[in-house]
């Protein structure tokens, strides 16, 4: 509709104009992040995986460390529909004398129904209180060889599905905490190096050069091998976390130093110093907040690498050790071609590891684009 000269156009009722300059920065980040469908999908996948990890003891039908020689390398269980709903057949175990392998054939005479929210082995729900309630289970007499192995069993007859769920508690958290620790160290050291400069900067940079002069994987292996073997599982978990952080902080520290050097010469920093602001105030109110977007992106993109590193160390016998379980330990059973060809379900942890790393990379790309002030 045409308007007279000098007259502002009227805004229709019920419509609200939003000034982009008045939108908080975090809302702009969320808006830019939501435009990336792959990153949003990766966030949903990771949210689902971490939810399953938290509830893994409740979802797992069997203990992850109970041996059962009657089900060594048992294949994934076939789900059938019986008169009472979904169920499974029992298994008959026979030894193939030519290949010396166990052969399992279903006993179709009886269908054992699958029940939901059943009582089973005791565990600590969320680490707070004991419980015996499980998501699903089988109603079968103790003398029957009827177990539900959704993803098959390993060479000791342990349920691979339950072991993968239990192993996710290590593989999905150890790398995360390791990255968090090296982000804290790298941010503090890099900020101090760039802000104070002088002899402190020179000392820190020479230390970083010394650490980075060693090949990464051999250095990680040497530090992991130095961890005592007889320490409790929890202590070894945190020591491996420290091993990941001890080396990983160097790259971030140099990047933060470069950011701080640029911010230190900015007008707002000079004005704060001229106004009598303390070093702590300048660092916490002007330097760290401006570098925070870069720190978050680096930390997000480093998580999949840390998860892969823990898996590699555990696979080599230098990370988490039995009786604890992680995805790296589970992959040790699939390190031969014969095992992979004969028992392909042993490679399921590889698929989960690929999905996790890919999801974190896609999420990191979305976060990087969202926090970019020039996007």
TrEMBL record:
Organism encoding this protein: Roseiflexus castenholzii (strain DSM 13941 / HLO8)
Domain ABC transmembrane type-1: 168-364
Chief localisation class: membrane
Keywords, ordered alphabetically: Membrane, Transmembrane, Transmembrane helix, Transport
Database matches in PROSITE patterns: ABC_TM1
Segments traversing the membrane: 38-60, 174-198, 210-229, 235-253, 287-307, 313-331, 343-363
Full protein name: Binding-protein-dependent transport systems inner membrane component
One annotated Gene Ontology cellular component of this protein: plasma membrane
Topological relation to the membrane, as annotated: Multi-pass membrane protein
The family this protein is said to belong to: Belongs to the binding-protein-dependent transport system permease family.
InterPro entries assigned to the protein according to its UniProt record, in alphabetical order: MetI-like, MetI-like_sf, OppC_N
Any matching Pfam family: OppC_N
GO biological process: transmembrane transport
